Amino acid sequence: MSRKLWLIIGVKLFVMFAILRAFFFPNVVKQEAERQRVSRSEFVEEQLIERRANLPTDTLPPDRLDSITQ
């Protein structure tokens, strides 16, 4: 009984992580980095900086707001 249960758990985990990931979760970072012809780390860096610059300042805590506006 125990081995059969572990086999079922193993098969479910394999299906969830190996098969579903390949079809439903594409590697966006890799694709965009290749499209823009930059390394993955450079792409992530650019995205983080761009998103940080586009944050509305009223959502930041007051102590962080002071360091940005100076």
TrEMBL record:
Tagged with keyword Membrane: yes
Family annotation (Pfam families): DUF4492
Transmembrane regions listed in the UniProt entry: 6-29
The name this protein goes by in its record: PF14899 domain protein
Keyword Transmembrane: yes
Key words of the record: Membrane, Transmembrane, Transmembrane helix
Organism expressing this protein natively: Porphyromonas catoniae ATCC 51270
